[in-house]
């Protein structure tokens, strides 16, 4: 089935062979290649060709033609960091924070991740799948075409396997591209509070072999943070993961200068994520690497923390990706459109920079750059079609409104 879209007001993020799989970094981030008054031909979910209306070939064959005048077409968002599979929301902690408790204080009292972990033991795999699928459907309608999902609320062999099996089932039954990350090292479970070593052994000796055996994860993640996993522990867990071919994508520098960036880069991480707290040392370290710095402004917004220093990173010549961090504690939203607005309003990224970060660089942060992230011949036709809107900047500008008419996936 061939579909031809014509009269597209703007066809955004069009990239040719040469740069269709490369990170967009530094000054380049301000450039978002696009065509005005364009056509786009797709067949069986693959992009066949595109161009401007003046150059539309006369003999072009299509089974269906759609006029998209006044509408902007973009590649679907690539959300490279989420915890979308969870059993319960945590709005009581949200109220505790309104009354003045911090995220860390709540975690120390057994709330936070441990609260979600407790509830995770009670829910069946089937139920967990049933409540996760609608969340995935919701983010798809909001424009997300590819997503990474982490375990990390199991914190036991059975719990982590349950989560990862649910993620695999989502992969099998959804038309989103999904990557799975094993985050057994998200927090120390209560019963290992005084014996961290035993929990690390459990991860290395029991969880990893079984996860690898069932092929349940693409990546390994560690919450490298004061009060959670320190640099040495992170080092050991990433080394163990590498033996099973799991590349790192890690939580780093959310609350403190945790050393997470450096240890991630040492292990050639695909991405280091959060990065609220960044000094020149971390920036220089990233400049020597292929690791994608990934910013999660939704978590900074929801926890009312300072935002990630996007300008410092981009102005230093780095690429950045943006992701939601969708989770019940620090960002109960999987809406990439909101992330786009936060990036512009709070982190002073331009709309072009933010869109590069949500598409091309997000795809790279999941190693999906060969098939997604741009409008390029041969890539998957996963498209956002906007409502009639005045300009591209209207997307982040009209925060809270849904500008998406539909997605093609
Ligand atoms: O990325 N920081 C660690 N993990 C999550 C939060 C998880 C939770 O609070 O449930 C995050 O913010
Ligand atoms: Fe996270």
Q: Overview of this structure, please?
A:
The chain has 409 residues and is α/β, with parallel strands linked by helices. It has two domains: 2-75 and 373-408, Urease, subunit C, domain 1 (Roll), CATH 2.30.40; 77-364, Metal-dependent hydrolases (TIM Barrel, Alpha-Beta Barrel), CATH 3.20.20.140. 36% of the residues lie in helices and 21% in strands. It contains 15 helices and 15 strands. The chain has an eight-stranded parallel sheet. Helix 8 links the parallel strand 10 (247-252) and strand 11 (271-274). Helix 5 (157-173) runs parallel beside helix 6. The longest helix has 19 residues, at 196-214. The two termini are 14 Å apart. The mean pLDDT is 97. Bound molecules: N-(iminomethyl)-L-glutamic acid and fe (iii) ion (FE). N-(iminomethyl)-L-glutamic acid is lined by residues 83, 112-113, 116, 223, 251, 254, 299, 325, 327-330.
């Amino acid at each position: 089935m061939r579909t031809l879209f014509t009269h597209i007001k703007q066809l955004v993020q069009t990239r040719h062979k040469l740069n269709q799989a490369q990170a967009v970094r530094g000054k380049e981030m301000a450039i978002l290649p696009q065509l005005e008054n364009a056509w786009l031909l797709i067949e069986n979910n693959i992009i066949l060709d595109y161009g401007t209306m003046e150059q539309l070939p006369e003999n072009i064959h299509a089974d269906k033609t759609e006029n998209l005048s006044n509408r902007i077409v973009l590649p679907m968002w690539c959300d490279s960091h989420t915890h979308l599979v969870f059993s319960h929301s945590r709005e009581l902690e949200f109220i505790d924070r309104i009354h003045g408790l911090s995220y860390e204080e709540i975690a120390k009292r057994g709330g936070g991740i441990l609260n979600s972990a407790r509830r995770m033991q009670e829910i069946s795999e089937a139920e967990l799948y049933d409540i996760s699928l609608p969340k995935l459907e919701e983010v798809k309608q909001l424009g997300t075409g590819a997503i990474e999902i982490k375990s990390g609320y199991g914190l036991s062999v059975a719990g982590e396997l349950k989560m990862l099996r649910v993620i695999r089932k989502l992969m099998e039954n959804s038309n989103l591209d999904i990557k799975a990350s094993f985050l057994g090292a998200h927090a120390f479970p209560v019963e290992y509070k005084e014996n961290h070593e035993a929990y690390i052994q459990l991860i290395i000796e029991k969880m990893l072999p079984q996860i690898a055996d069932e092929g349940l994860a693409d990546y390994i993640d560690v919450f490298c943070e004061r009060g959670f996993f320190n640099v040495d522990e992170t080092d050991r867990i990433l080394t163990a993961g590498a033996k099973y071919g799991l590349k790192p994508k890690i939580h780093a520098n959310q609350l403190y200068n945790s050393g997470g960036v450096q240890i991630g880069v040492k292990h050639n991480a695909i991405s280091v994520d959060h990065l609220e707290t960044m000094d020149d040392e971390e920036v220089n370290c990233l400049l020597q690497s292929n690791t994608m710095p990934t910013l999660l402004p939704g978590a900074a917004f929801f926890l009312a923390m300072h935002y990630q220093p996007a300008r410092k990173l981009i102005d230093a010549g780095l690429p950045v990706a943006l992701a939601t961090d969708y989770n019940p504690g620090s960002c109960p939203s999987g809406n990439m459109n909101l992330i786009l607005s936060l990036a512009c309003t709070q982190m002073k990224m331009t709309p072009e920079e933010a869109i590069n970060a949500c598409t091309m660089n997000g795809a790279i942060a999941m190693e999906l750059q060969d098939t997604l992230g741009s409008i390029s011949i041969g890539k998957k036709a996963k498209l956002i079609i906007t409502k009639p809107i005045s300009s591209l900047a209207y997307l982040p500008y009209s925060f809270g409104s849904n500008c998406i008419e539909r997605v093609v996936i």
